[in-house]
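cron nightly-structures :: item 1 of 1
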Amino acid sequence: MTQPIKWLQDEIADRMLQKLDIVKLDVKDILIVPDFPGKHLNTFAKRYPRARLISLVDESVSGFAMWRAKAVTHWRSLFGASTSSLADYTSSGKFDLSDNSVDLIFSDLLLHDLADPKEFLHECWRVLREGGLIAFSYLGPDTGKELRSISLSELKLKNLLSPWDMHDMGDALLAERFSDPVMDMEYLTLDYENSALLLGDINALKLIHSTPIETLELSSLPQKLTLEVVYGHAWVIGKHLAKAKDSVAYIDLNQIGRKTRPDSA
């Protein structure tokens, strides 16, 4: 997500938090990926006043802007917070965190920009503690469907890197051993006063290859844009129990108890 459409990131974060209103979770450490100076920080401050915030900051956000936002809304986290760049994760595919180190992962409009969301889910499973929760949102495959219905040779469309619907994501969560996944989806329709605004947003959403505005016949563009927004959350339960791979169950030796017979010597 780039700067012209940050309002959308903020709006979806607010909707995600509303969906989590009924979730009871003892939170000490929260990983926000990507993080940005939005109003969600104030909600975290009220709901989890003693939690430590771990940020993977969006590339378009300056370190000072992120620090200032946290100082205003969630100052307690400044004493134990850590911040790194989202680019560090996307280049390595790894969080700079130890196993079992966070209770909540909050990911707003990221997964559709990842080449393989399964790797992201695998990393989330690694760093979440037993009983932890992942909550996320991303753009689904119907996003920008109006653009596919027009014929404009100068407009070079791009597919989302991961055009997964909510069923694909639900299956992937179960495959990565998350429990009780809950998936939801809604359509948002954006109406535009002029085509230049639309072009700016579809560039920000990475739905087209960068196109000089002077080469386009703007009157041919639609006046609205549909966004398919997919929401989900899932739990980490039974993390240390037996796991299956290739139809074979692997059991940690520490899980095997020894039962002694009463009449044994």
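cron nightly-structures :: done
The longest strand covers residues 179-191.
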